[in-house]
Specification:
The chain is an alpha/beta fold and 220 residues long. It has helices spanning 2-7, 15-27, 33-41, 73-84, 101-106, 120-132, 169-173; strands spanning 62-65, 68-70, 91-95, 112-117, 138-142, 155-160, 175-185, 191-198, 203-211. The structure holds S-adenosyl-L-homocysteine (SAH).
């Protein structure tokens, strides 16, 4: 069982370091205790290269190779909190699995996650990490997030971890009535995190503030 203990990060990074991160997110306005508990529990150092593990509990994005990044904890917390506030559904579509950190934070808080990533190598590693963490309510798909994942649509929530110049049509279509889509929209340097809620006959949009994400690449 020593192996499992290490995987869960006990001893690898101190509880104090994680507490400090949680406090920082709280100070910056994250209110959901369920989300903050997940930020405390998920061993973020296992989602980055060993060389960066000592920085894993800083509130900052870090490189994960192949030109991609692990999202900043504050942003992951903000998106998760926005998605879950008043959430009544079961199914969430995630676009941009990356290293799988956002997926791991969200997984215990919803029934089922469907996650799409275009870089197969990242997807393969994310799948392995989540299995090591005993997370089983996630289905992975290599592919283009602009297309969503029609097979399991509609989704009660959609989280997109890469920025697009406009809202992808397919994602709007795959949103269930009452469902929400949270994603960064806009060009590099001027991205806005938006939350779209699907109403009976229209979509409502609110802004959650400025963010900085890698681009949602077009095509495979
Ligand atoms: N969710 C991650 C952050 C991922 S960074 C975390 O928790 O840290 C954004 C990811 O989106 C990258 O892995 C990138 O490869 C992926 N991506 C970019 N464009 C995409 C597209 N069109 N379809 C699917 N994934 C895409």
């Amino acid at each position: 069982m020593q192996h499992k203990t290490d995987i869960r990060g006990i001893g690898m990074t101190s509880a104090r370091t994680r507490d400090r991160l949680v406090q920082r997110l709280r100070d910056n306005g994250i209110k959901s205790n369920a989300v903050l508990e997940q930020i405390r529990n998920v061993p973020r150092h296992l989602f980055v290269d060993e060389a960066l593990a000592s920085r894993a509990y800083e509130d900052t994005a870090l490189p994960i190779g192949l030109g991609q990044t692990i999202s900043q904890p504050y942003v992951v917390a903000r998106m998760t909190e926005a998605l879950l506030d008043g959430f009544e559904g079961e199914k969430v579509l995630e676009i941009g699995t990356g290293c799988g950190y956002q997926t791991a934070v969200l997984a215990p808080l919803v029934k089922q996650i469907y996650t799409v990533e275009r870089i197969r190598e990242l997807q393969r590693k994310a799948k392995q990490r989540l299995r090591d963490l005993d997370i089983y309510n996630v289905q992975f798909r290599p592919g283009d997030g602009w297309e969503g994942w029609a097979k399991y649509a509609p989704y009660d929530g959609i989280l997109v971890a890469a920025a697009a110049p406009e809202l992808p049509e397919k994602l709007l279509e795959q949103l269930a009535p009452g469902g929400r889509l949270i994603m960064p929209v806009g060009p590099a340097g001027r991205q806005d995190l938006v939350m779209i809620t699907r109403k009976d006959d229209h979509y409502e949009q609110v802004s959650l503030g400025a963010v900085s994400f890698v681009p949602l690449v077009k095509g495979k």
